[in-house]
Specification:
Layout lengths: L2 H9 L29 H20 L7 H10 L2 H16 L3 H22 L2 H13 L7 H15 L7 H31 L2 E3 L10 H13 L5 E3 L3 H10 L3 H12 L11 H17 L5 H6 L7 H32 L8 H16 L3 H4 L5 H16 L2 E4 L11 E6 L5 E8 L11 E6 L2 E3 L2 E3 L2 E5 L15 H18 L20 H7 L5 H4 L14 H9 L5 H19 L9 H8 L19 H4 L9 H19 L4 H12 L7 H9 L6 H7 L5
Parallel strand pairs: 5-9
Antiparallel strand pairs: 1-2, 3-4, 4-5, 6-9, 7-8
Helix pairs in contact: 2-3, 2-4, 2-5, 2-6, 3-7, 5-8, 6-7, 8-12, 10-15, 14-15, 14-22, 17-18, 18-19, 19-25, 25-28, 26-27
C-alpha cells in the first residue's frame, strides 16, 4: 500500500496524489522537486505526525520488557515519513522560500514542537527508556549503541521528562513559543535583506568599482526594473562595493542599511523578539534546574561549561588584541596617505584595508578572480576529496532540482560504492537567506539489511555569472566553498547505524572541524595547481601570486579574530544572564562586546537584530564553536603539514576516525584517536602569526 493510500484511509476519504507521500521514484530515491507543490506540504506533515505517533505509541505500549532494540533503537528509527517531509520542506524554506512557504512554516512549526514534546513528555515511553538506561549491560553494547542510549536518555531528561505535570505544561508552552519566535526572527532578517536596494544612476558614483561588480549591478537593476545600477545587501553585491567604491557617502549608506537590519522599529524589528527569545531560554533552563541557558547547553558540548568557554575567548582576546590595535593604526595611516582627514569609521574599513593590502602584498582580490572560475573551483574541491578520500563525483541532470541554479551529483567511494547524492546551490536570489550552509535532505542510516545513504546539500551566495563572464569568485568565496564542502564530506562519508548519530549530528563545537580543516588547503600550491587556471588563457595561477596569498594570510588576523570574538562574547552574554532581560538590546550589546571594539559604532547599527546563528539557528551559547574549532583544525592540519598535505595514511585516519563516525562516540575520543593527543592552542597562535609578529 502506498503511503498516500494509507493517508486517505486515515482521513476516511479519497486523497489526491501527493508526491511527498509516495515512493520517490527519481534516481537514488531523490526528492521529486519537480512534482512537489506548496499545497502538498501540510498534508504530508499531518500524515507524518500521525504515523509517527502511532509508532511512538506502539513502543510505549509494548508489553515486552524494554530492551535497547525494542525501545531505544525503535525510537530512533521512528517517524521516517515525517523526517522525509522535513528534509525537503525546511531546506527549501531556507533556499527557495516564498510568502506561502513562510506561512506554512509558521503553521507547522508549533505542531512539530508539540509532536516532539508529546514524545519526550510521554510518561510510559520515558519509563521504558529509563528502564533500559538503568539496567542495560553496557559491555554488551557497541560504542555507538552506548552513545545512542545515553543521548536518548538525556534527550528526555533535558526536555522535561522528569518535571511535574504543571511544569511539563509550562515547558510545552515555552518550547512552542520559542520555535515560533526563532522562525519570525529569521523571516524578519530575510525580509530586511531583500527589501533594500541602493540604486546608482550617476556613473561617476561607480568610481573604483571593478568592471565585474558594475556589470552585475547593471544586471541586478535590469532584473528589478530599475534604471542605472543596483546594489543589494547580498554578499556578492555588498562586499565589492564596501571594498572598492570611492564614494564614501554611498559606502556609509550601504553599510548602515546592512547594520540596522531588524533594528528599524518597523514590522521586521527584532528587538522584542530577542528579549523574548533570551527570556524563554532562561526560563526553560531554570525550569530544568540550570542557572543559565549556557549552563544547560554546554553540558552537551566539548567545552563543558561557561568557565572553559570564557577562558578560551579571553585567552584569544589577550593574544590577538595587541595585533588588532596595530592593524587599526596601520590602516588609519594608509587612509591618511590616501588623503583621508578623518578617523576611520566602520564603512571605511574594507576600503582602506584593501588599499593597504595592495600596498603590502601587491595583491588585489579582483586580480585573483580569473583564476577562480566557479566550475574550476568545484573541480578542485572534488579533486581534493578524491585525492584524500578516494571520493568521486558524477553530475546527473536527470535528478530533479528545485531551481535551475542547482546541480546534482552522484557520489562514489574508492571501491565504486554509492555514497551519497550531493546538491550544489551556489548563487544568491531573493528566496534564499544570506550566508552559506550545508544540510541533509535525508540522513544516513542502517537498519538490518537496509542501508540508506544520505542526500546532502550545500547552499551559498556566491558571485553569479554575467552576460559576458562566467562566475568568477574571490579568494574568500573559494574558501567558503572549501568550508561548506568540508561539512558536506562529513555528511556524505558518514557510516553509522542510527540516524540521530549520523553525519553532522555531533556536538556543535565539533561540527566545524571538518569544514574549517578544508580551508587549510586553499593556500597550498599543490592543491591550487590542480584547478586554479586563468579562465581565458588556461595559464596556471602564478607561483608569485600564490606566494602573495600565503604572505597575506595573517593580514588583519588580529582584527578578524576580534570580530569573531565579539560574536562569541555577545552570544555568551545573552545566554549567561540569570534574571529576566528587559533592557535595551543596543546597550546590552555594547557592554558585552566593549573589549573587542576598535572602531566607532554607527548610529542604529546592531549585531544582535540580524544575528541568525544564535537567534534563529543552532548556535545559541555556542558561537564560540568557530574559535574552538579553529583550535582543532589548526592542530589537525599540523599533522597533514608534517606528513604531507595529501598523505594517504593521515587522510585515512581522519576519514575513519572523524568523517565516518558522525556522533557515534564522544568527539574528544574521536579526535584523540586521530591526533594521538588532546588539541592545544599552539598551532592556531602560530598560524595566525600571534607568536612572531
Amino acid at each position: 500500500m502506498l503511503i498516500s493510500a494509507a493517508a486517505a484511509l486515515l482521513s476516511g476519504c479519497e486523497a489526491p496524489s501527493n508526491p511527498l507521500l509516495e515512493k520517490f521514484d527519481a534516481p537514488f530515491e531523490a526528492a521529486p522537486f519537480d512534482k512537489i507543490k506548496t499545497e502538498h506540504y501540510l498534508p504530508a506533515f499531518r500524515y507524518g505526525m500521525e504515523e509517527g505517533r502511532r509508532e511512538i505509541n506502539a513502543i510505549a505500549d509494548n508489553t515486552d520488557a524494554p530492551t535497547f532494540e525494542n525501545t531505544i533503537a525503535a525510537l530512533d528509527y521512528s517517524g521516517a515519513s515525517l523526517v522525509r517531509t522535513e528534509g525537503v520542506f525546511f531546506n527549501l524554506n531556507e533556499a527557495e522560500t516564498s510568502p506561502e512557504m513562510q506561512r506554512i512554516a509558521q503553521e507547522v512549526t508549533p505542531l512539530l514542537t508539540e509532536y516532539s514534546n508529546d514524545i519526550t513528555l510521554n510518561e510510559k515511553l520515558f519509563a521504558r527508556v529509563k528502564a533500559v538506561y538503568d539496567s542495560a549491560d553496557r559491555s554488551a553494547l557497541s560504542p555507538e549503541q552506548t552513545t545512542l542510549l545515553e543521548k536518548t536518555y538525556k534527550w528526555f531528561t533535558r526536555s522535561g521528562a522528569g518535571l511535574s505535570e504543571a511544569d511539563k505544561a509550562k515547558y510545552r508552552e515555552l518550547s512552542s513559543r520559542l520555535a515560533t519566535l526563532k522562525l519570525s526572527f529569521k523571516q524578519n532578517a530575510l525580509n530586511e535583506t531583500n527589501a533594500y536596494v541602493l540604486t546608482v544612476t550617476d556613473s561617476s558614483d561607480l568610481k573604483g568599482l571593478p568592471a565585474l561588480a558594475v556589470e552585475q549591478a547593471k544586471e541586478t537593476a535590469k532584473s528589478k526594473g530599475l534604471d542605472g545600477w543596483a546594489f543589494t545587501l547580498h554578499q556578492p553585491s555588498y562586499a565589492p562595493f564596501m571594498k572598492y567604491a570611492e564614494n564614501r557617502d554611498l559606502r556609509k549608506k550601504l553599510y548602515t542599511a546592512a547594520s540596522v537590519k531588524g533594528n528599524q522599529g518597523n514590522e521586521n524589528d527584532n528587538n522584542e523578539t530577542i528579549r523574548e527569545i533570551v527570556n524563554i531560554r532562561l526560563q526553560t533552563a531554570q525550569l530544568l534546574g540550570y542557572k543559565t541557558y549556557a549552563d544547560y547547553t554546554l553540558e552537551e558540548r566539548m567545552a563543558q561549561n561557561t568557565a572553559n568557554v570564557n577562558q578560551l575567548l579571553n585567552e584569544l582576546l589577550t593574544a590577538s588584541k595587541p595585533f588588532a590595535q596595530k592593524e587599526i593604526a596601520e590602516v588609519q595611516a594608509c587612509a591618511e596617505r590616501h588623503g583621508a582627514s578623518f578617523a576611520l569609521q566602520p564603512y571605511d574599513w574594507s576600503f582602506y584595508a584593501e588599499k593597504l593590502r595592495e600596498e603590502k602584498y601587491s595583491l588585489d582580490d579582483e586580480a585573483l578572480r580569473p583564476y577562480y572560475k566557479l566550475d574550476n573551483v568545484l573541480k578542485g574541491v572534488f579533486g581534493l576529496a578524491e585525492r584524500l578520500y578516494g571520493v568521486t563525483f558524477k553530475e546527473n541532470k536527470e535528478i530533479p532540482v528545485y531551481h535551475p541554479d542547482v546541480k546534482a551529483y552522484e557520489v562514489y567511494g574508492k571501491n565504486g560504492e554509492f555514497l551519497a547524492l550531493y546538491y550544489a546551490d551556489l548563487h544568491p536570489r531573493e528566496g534564499k537567506r544570506s550566508g552559506a550552509w550545508m544540510n541533509d535532505i535525508r540522513p544516513q542510516l542502517r537498519r538490518g539489511e537496509h542501508v540508506q545513504r544520505p542526500h546532502i546539500i550545500n547552499v551559498c551566495n556566491l558571485t553569479k555569472p554575467t552576460g559576458s563572464k562566467p562566475a568568477l569568485l574571490t579568494f574568500a568565496e573559494a574558501n567558503t566553498i572549501l568550508h561548506e564542502f568540508g561539512h558536506a564530506l562529513h555528511g556524505m562519508l558518514t557510516d553509522c547505524t542510527y540516524p540521530s548519530l549520523s553525519g553532522t549530528s555531533v556536538y556543535r563545537d565539533f561540527v566545524e572541524l571538518p569544514s574549517q580543516l578544508m580551508e587549510n588547503w586553499g593556500t597550498e600550491k599543490e592543491f591550487l595547481d590542480m584547478f586554479a587556471v586563468h579562465y581565458e588563457t588556461g595559464e596556471k595561477i602564478p607561483a608569485a601570486l600564490i606566494e602573495k596569498i600565503i604572505a597575506s594570510q595573517t593580514y588583519l588576523a588580529g582584527y578578524s579574530s576580534l570580530r569573531q570574538l565579539s560574536f562569541g562574547m555577545l552570544d555568551m552574554a545573552y545566554h549567561t544572564i540569570d534574571a529576566s532581560f528587559t533592557g535595551s538590546v543596543a546597550d546590552f550589546e555594547q557592554s558585552a562586546i566593549a573589549a573587542t571594539l576598535l572602531l566607532p559604532t554607527v548610529e542604529g547599527a546592531s549585531l544582535s537584530t540580524s544575528f541568525g546563528h544564535i537567534f534563529s539557528g543552532g548556535y545559541a551559547a555556542g558561537y564560540y564553536s568557530y574559535k574552538w574549532s579553529e583550535v582543532l583544525d589548526a592542530d589537525a592540519f599540523s599533522v597533514f603539514k608534517k606528513n604531507g598535505i595529501f598523505d594517504s595514511a593521515t587522510a585515512n585516519s581522519f576519514l575513519t576516525n572523524i568523517l565516518t563516525k558522525g556522533g557515534s562516540e564522544h568527539p574528544l575520543v574521536l579526535y584523540k584517536r586521530f591526533r594521538g593527543q588532546a588539541p592545544t592552542i599552539d598551532a592556531l597562535l602560530q598560524r595566525e602569526g600571534f607568536t612572531k609578529r
